[in-house]
Amino acid sequence: MGILERIKEIEQEMDKTQRNKATEGHLGMLKARLAKLRSELLTPSSGGGGGQGFDVARSGDGRVAMIGFPSVGKSSLLSELTETESVAAGYEFTTLTCIPGNVYYNDTRIQLLDLPGIIEGAAYGKGRGREVIAVARSSDLILMVLDGAKEGVNQHRQILERELETVGLRLNKTPPNVYYRLKKDGGVKFNSTIALTKLGDDPGATVKRVLSEYKIHNCEVLVREDVTVDDIVDVVQGNRKYVKCLYVYNKVDMISIEDMDKLAREPNSIVVSVHMKLNLEALLAKMWVYMGLIRIFTKRKGHPPDFTDPVILSSERSGTNVKAAAQHISREMIDVFNYALVWGRSTKHDPMRCGLAHQLQDEDVLQIVPKTITQQKRSKGYVKIAQNAKDALATRRKKKPLKT
Ligand SMILES: Nc1nc2c(ncn2[C@@H]2O[C@H](COP(=O)(O)OP(=O)(O)OP(=O)(O)O)[C@@H](O)[C@H]2O)c(=O)[nH]1
Ligand SMILES: [K+]
Ligand SMILES: [Mg+2]
């Protein structure tokens, strides 16, 4: 039996299984089996990667992929927002490969990717579905482009969400708050810090059934929120990609103000019209926020800040603390870091003396104060002395164990 048939079979069995507290373990086992098969789909035997026409190199300060049904206006949007022209036309599947363009916004260069339209069944390889989804996985933000003028547009939204979920993408979610560690022995240690209401009569047994489906018999699981069995499968399966998704309803030039207003109120959404150039600036601003981007202006001692070439950080990728900024400037910076002086939104007073963990905010000014040469020598010397002391102790212990 092929993978697709096996998936079908399990889905049918899940439909047949009555959902109640007693069947939670059985369902968990089926869900785990399904997740394993689906992740096999993700790694095609043909070498993986983006596939021809899809392996576009990463560039700029972040990557955004446009996902949508055919002819919703993805290529029109790319041509409008970037210097790249991507062919747009009234027939479906105009675009057949991945086409990159650059968006310049707030001193940041964002790589925007136009992709072929996808349809129901994309996750199972329909059309160029698998290639498109692989690109989506590699991006920092998904723009789900929808045809706001189409009836049942929110059904389309759901279909696409399901396709992306199927292959392990998790949109606008945070990873389940579960501590999970594999062990060499000792069996399964299961604990929770709060009452679990969604894992059936015996949460521990439900979790163990999922684990045994993965042939995991020794591990530690500590659940810190009221998770579902799907969350547990996500934790154990492990290859989930948590990514932000912004829903872009295009073509609102074709609908009434009332309908437009309804769409604009959907969560994580924005309405635009590429043809009328409506709301495109707001789209860029929202993209920027969703990518968690910030600009940090650096400053040298005794000089004014450099406002021309900021360091760009992202809460979704690098993180946005002083350490991330220092590493961005140079690798060695961390070794010689003494403290930082920060001016701007993140401080209580200006300048504020900060350590590596301080969280920066957009348009902060940062000056890194390195250790003095003497301090550096001293700290290196200290490490050496400490190491010598440890070595000496270890040798002594070998010779004659210390009495305790
Ligand atoms: N009314 C209206 N039509 C639009 C708008 N944006 C794009 N279109 C039209 O929608 C059709 C499809 O546009 P494309 O940009 O080719 O759509 P696509 O999503 O790239 O399509 P595929 O590459 O085939 O998946 C074209 O006829 C566009 O002119 C808009 O804001 N309003
Ligand atoms: K088209
Ligand atoms: Mg196109």
UniProtKB/TrEMBL annotation:
InterPro entries linked to this entry: Beta-grasp_dom_sf, DRG, G_OBG, GTP-bd, GTP-binding_2, GTP1-OBG_CS, P-loop_NTPase, Small_GTP-bd
Domain OBG-type G: 62-292
Keyword terms: GTP-binding, Nucleotide-binding
Domain TGS stretches: 292-370
Organism, scientific name: Ectocarpus siliculosus (Brown alga)
PROSITE patterns from the UniProt entry: G_OBG, GTP1_OBG, TGS
CDD domains xref list: DRG
Keyword ATP-binding appears in the UniProt entry: no
Protein name: DRG2, developmentally regulated GTPase 2
Pfam families: MMR_HSR1 (PF01926), MMR_HSR1_Xtn (PF16897), TGS (PF02824)
GO MF: GTP binding; GTPase activity
